[in-house]
Amino acid sequence: MEERPIEEQLVHQEIIDLLKKSIYNYPNASRPTLMTFVNHPLKNKAVRDNEGSEYYPDIVIINTQTNKIVMIGEVETISSLNESEIGHWQTFTKLSPVFYLFYPKGQYSRMSELCKKVPLTGFFEYEKINSQYTVARRWPC
Fold first, then answer.
1. pTM above the 0.90 mark?
2. Which of 37, 45, 50, 125 is the most exposed place for a label (fewest CB within 10 A)?
């Protein structure tokens, strides 16, 4: 994984924060057994493959009763939306029954091309409108 430019690092963090606070705010009253972990800027929850290798996707949701992964989410920026990320995405699809990608608006054709190589559960695009980020589902691939 290459280092993002500083402007993109800020966007990346804002989107992760938005997702944690709004969409994946677990546990909550309707989903008390789910727990959301974010791995940016600090690594909080590793997911392991069968060989014991550790990965730190941006968002990990765990069922606290079974300790099983429910969802993995990965936020991409302009510079990280590329072929070199496909290996990570493929790993994440094997580690979780649900894997979502979040990408910047205006990159649908690029995302559509890349996701043909990875069996995503879904992907979402984000954009900034009047100093606020919004996230919208874009499907199918």
1. yes
2. 50
